Amino acid sequence: xxxxxxxxxxxxxxxxxxxxxxxxxxxxxxxxDDIVFITPNGPPFGKAxxxxxxxxxxxxxxxxDFEEVIVSGDMACTRGFINVTVTPKVGGTxxxxxxxxxxxxxxQADGRWLLSRDANFVKPVS
Length: 126
Known about the structure:
By secondary structure, this protein is of the alpha+beta class. The protein is 25% helix and 49% strand.
């Protein structure tokens, strides 16, 4: 495994940890300024919308892995599968989601890899 592939593979556990602790500063620092998120539940959205949607109203547990990482120069593409459990902090029902993800990363001049495009196809599971 190359150092670039390792850096990409290390991205997901860091993202999950920041998600579970609602550490939006860490999450935002991991995103390219022109990030585009694609989900099945609405139109694509960017970094500002992501920051507004971040909420401390729910507890999130996330697990998963990249099944494939392809690195070419300063671009990388990943394919993986994730599981998400969303529990409202005040009342409500826990929801479980699972699905495939397809992500594109860009390497920065300082060597960091930032998430540039993310297609997330999670759906409710029983």
